[in-house]
Amino acid sequence: MQVSKFQPDLFLRDYWQKKPLLIKNPWASWTNPLEPDELAGLACEEGIESRLITQDHGALALEHGPFAETRFGELGGAPWTLLVQAVDHHVPEVSALLDSFRFIPNWRIDDVMVSYAVDQGGVGAHFDQYDVFLIQGLGKRRWQVGAPCDDRTELLPHDDLRLLASFEATQEWVLEPGDILYVPPGIPHNGIAIGDDCMTYSIGFRAPSRDELVVQWTEHLLDQSDSDLHYADPDLALQKNPGEIAPEALAGLHAMITEKLQDREAFARWFGQYNSMPKNLDIDWAPEVPIDAADLHALVSAPVFLTRNPASRFSFVRESAGSVVLFVDGHSYPCAGECALFAERLCAIDEITVGPDDLKSPSTVAVIVALLNLGSIEIVDED
């Protein structure tokens, strides 16, 4: 299917996690937000995840960055593709692409991966366990999709790439600049560049697995435990057969395990922190000189903009009327009253205006100071 006028409510009803959709250039005016040379420069930097996929007589090989500046000039005429992860964390113009996809909750957004390919370049037929929007930024790419896959689908024997052993296209389209292809989880897809200077922006979404959540949540509970509770049965009754594990014993043992696991409020607070952890823990965004409450009041003597760091993750959980817990980069901040309203505004959009009246709440001041000192937000004068 393809549409020319995109309607988020209809998309969520009819396509989200159901079937692919081609969206023909819905932008008022499409401008490619990143030049190929800029992408190559990012791939040469330490701390930025990048990959290079080359082809040799149909076989694909993978290299991990950072790359030497001379590497791309050594590739010759064979097809190749450069992939750079989390470009939205480093390029504001790429981060701005996410504004058009805010109809999906922020906590689900992972990052924007950008690819550059020469003619016939691609990464091979594969499928993902998450949703993805593929925006054609520059040049043309032929996209093919196939029948749904799952964990039983056969893959090629490859040390580095998870490629399908067989792929049969059921639909295909040629995307031009500004076009978007939505691909649900489990749908195999294969993209092949048509001509050189083919750039694609892949907006991926977080989809934690059940195993991941169980492991991480239980590890957190163990870390937080302040005692090693042991099973006890002070009301033990005489059993007919000592070999039986009685129902009462099983109920007590099971309760020892599930009591903490089923604490929904504790789970919500843990998940907010866990899900908001920065993608790259090695990058420190904190300013060189921290500020305190007095510094903040001096900086906000007139209205200023508070701008979120594109690499930071913001979300909140509502605990009661007028009370929320704000989660930013793995930290949690209980907020009530005016501070809760501030937290909700901060999570809604990337930039908000803050003036002296907003600093009348000491808890709001404390949150702003903490986030400034983390590097999760910064102050920009309105002028």
From TrEMBL:
Cofactor(s), names only, from the UniProt record: Fe(2+)
JmjC domain segment(s): 93-222
Official protein name in the record: Cupin
SMART domains, A to Z: JmjC (SM00558)
Domain of life: Bacteria
Keywords recorded for this protein, A-Z: Dioxygenase, Iron, Metal-binding, Oxidoreductase
UniProt organism field: Novosphingobium barchaimii LL02
Keyword Oxidoreductase recorded: yes
Pfam families (alphabetical): JmjC_2, WHD_ROXA
Residue ranges that the Swiss-Prot or TrEMBL entry lists as coiled coil: none
UniProt GO MF annotations: 2-oxoglutarate-dependent dioxygenase activity; metal ion binding
